[in-house]
Amino acid sequence: MRAGMLGAAVAMWLLAWVLPAPALGGGGREGPDRCREQALGWYGSLYGGWLTEAGYREWFTQEPDMEEHWMLAGSVIRELKRLGDFMVEAEGVGAWHWGAFRGVDDEYAEAAASGNLRWKDMPWDETVDTSLAFGLGLSATTVVPEHEERIHGKSDTALVYMMTEVTAARPSDPDRMVFFRVHHRSGAFGLLDDIKGASNYLAVGVRVRLD
Predict the structure, then answer these.
(1) CATH number for the domain that contains residue 188
(2) pTM for this one?
(3) pLDDT tens digits for range 84-139
């Protein structure tokens, strides 16, 4: 129930944020605005997440169980190279995690870095400017997270970091966007010290272009 209410609130917020503003004057982005959009850029993000015990497969078959544990994160993205409809990026993330997980206080900091591949050009971009992204890298925490050990039996401070993300922006203002992200840590199917799972946070956030 709580997850359903959160999802509805997030969907309404995203819809209100990304609906195209009324046109004032001329048509679409041309000239300097179009050149700026095509140039490689720097982006800053702020997002908050809610821990879920469920994995990717469970999200499509049942309502995920949300735990009393949260995160607040900031990140910087640098676009590196455009490959047709795709963009290669580097991202650095800093996060603080807190909450009494099943009655045990579990607070720690996290730093992560990833290489991202973003699909930027969608057929409906003139209605809602959208992108899809996947990132893979490394995550390090200041302590071994209590919730990771209790859910999966084993964890470590250094693990594989993955993220999947969808962004949405007004076509008239593509440099500001909202996004939904899955923030994931794991042992990469047991490749790291036989750790087969760790944590998933369902997160929403905002992002702006910095340059």
Answers:
(1) 2.40.160.20
(2) 0.80
(3) 999 999 999 999 999 987 777 889 999 999 999 999 988 999 999 999 999 999 99
* Burial zone of 58 (CB within 10 Å; 0-12 exposed, 13-18 middle, 19+ buried): middle
Q: Is residue 82 part of a domain?
A: yes
Angle (CA) 15-45-78 rounded to 5° is 120
- Please say whether the beta carbons of 101 and 77 come within 8 A: no
Residue at 132 is within a domain: yes
**Inside any domain, residue 129:** yes
Q: Which long-range contacts (CB under 8 A, 24 or more apart) does 144-147 make?
A: 145/97, 145/106, 145/108, 145/198, 145/199, 146/101, 146/104, 146/106, 147/51, 147/67, 147/69, 147/101, 147/102, 147/106, 147/199
Residue 34 within a domain:
no
